[in-house]
Write a structure and sequence with these properties.
By secondary structure, the protein is an alpha/beta fold. The protein has 2 domains: 178 residues, Periplasmic binding protein-like II (D-Maltodextrin-Binding Protein, domain 2), CATH 3.40.190.10; 147 residues, D-Maltodextrin-Binding Protein, domain 2. The chain has 11 helices and 14 strands. The chain is elongated, with a radius of gyration of 22 Å. It starts with a strand and ends with a helix.
Amino acid sequence: MRKFLLVPSVVAATAITLAGCSADASAPASDGEWPESITLSLVPSVEGEDLAEALDPLTTYLSDELGIEVEGVVATDYAATVEALGADQAQVIITDAGSLYNAIERYDAELVLRDVRFGATSYASVAMTNNPDKYCEDEPAMSTYAASGIELSYCNGIEQPGENATGQGPAGTDALAAIDEGTEVALQAATSPAGYQYPVVAMREAGVDTDAGIAQIPVEGNNNAVLAVYNGDAEVGFAYWDARTTVTEEAPDVAEEVVAFAYTDMIPNGGVAVSSSLPEDLVTELTALMDGYAESSPEAETVMFDLVGLSDWTAETAEDEIVRYGEILAEFSS
């Protein structure tokens, strides 16, 4: 019978206890034979009593196709997925980009798939302003944010006027040098990649003193970063691309009043990593099955989105983006 286990948040591998799943049962034989079972650990989007129901279609699909038992482990946070892999309590993890980096660096895990959300495996943080005369080298022009069909304003050539916006960075980052001393900049929590970490790194690389040279305006959430610029509480703000679409009801003229003028480096989605203890041919088949899961049935596409908020996985892992993400995380580890 397939088991669904709850992994508590842990700091060390020795703190993990997974009932009904032992390292001996799931570890592969030394001669490369497939194990009788493997364990998959993830942090689902659903909560409570829906966990088993949400996870069962994926583990059943993998079990049936691989011919071995695939057990599902529900982790309470992303760090727990890494520690489960390190303790060989899980051999496959679906986790965020930072945890992928840690799994690769600490436990020699192999990155096999990247998360796809609405066709993209990564996204940029967008720099926005209510003062385009200061930050734009050209006249702001409108491009369409295809996900919502909303036209938004961009400058510095980061998008092509009249076409669908792409949100590809880095672009226009030279304009960040115009952030002079005392400029009010809306920033989110220090743990936010799009709202703080990538913007701070981009500003520093442009020569901006982010510690003493700007007036940081703390905000909670991407929508509030946009509204801080819209309402004039900050001259510049940062959010994921393109969070301006989240405030069109309360700020219907946001497209004209808040102009995007730069994109940071791309911030990677999470993905799937596997233990180095698994046989290579098992990893190959598992990767192909998970890569094709969303297209395997009408139900699978719904399950995938409901379970982990994804539209697909891709084997184009772009590991360099994960490495860059790890380097940026290290700057804020303290």
